[in-house]
Amino acid sequence: MTGPLLVVAQAGQINTGAFDPVDAIADITHERQGWLHVDGAVGLWARACPAKAHLANGIEKADSWAPVEHKRLQRPYYTRYAFVRNAEAHRQAMRIEASYLTASEQGVHDPRNYVPELSRCVRGFVTWAINSALGRQGIADMIECHCQLAQAMSQRLTEEPGIYVLNEVELNQFVVQFGSPTSSEAFEGRYQSCSDRPCLLCVRGGLERLVGNARFNHFLADDKHRCFSGGRCDR
To answer: Which keywords does this Swiss-Prot/TrEMBL entry list (predicted)?
Structure first.
């Protein structure tokens, strides 16, 4: 192999919430002088929750992370981040120069050297405001609540005839199968008509259920169970 080695590990698979063994991957990558990036769009925030933090063991060894708040913390779509250990490597990769751009003074942080855009809105304010209101404990409680609801929903669904949960539930996602693939496709239309803004995806005849709305509680979880298992969902 020639050229630099770049390894991408996943902290929270988009459909199942599964984690790569980041700790071991980091050791192997750095033994070969490689760069380890962790795609943490779904699962990186597990580190904020004591009950789930172990799932992301080893992410501190990575060279860069990419968490996304809108997937786990119900922030606006554009709230996403990149954390890079080597600040100079980050700057060199993203720096933009043109004759009409005025150079910043030495030592002054210039945002154009760290992001793709030259112009953008004040995205960080939304993150700061909501995270400040919730605090560390509030974020941890929300993540743990969503994970508990996913566990409860998946357990109740497995008790229903003809409904199968296809993955081990680690975070707030699970994939369900309703009988044959044909019956699953028919059910999708029915579910869409009674769902409260779900994240729903067909996966080889299954449906992926993501529990992650700030207003989602045990009452709504019961509603979803009734809809899944054959009852009518009015909300």
So the answer is: Decarboxylase, Lyase, Pyridoxal phosphate
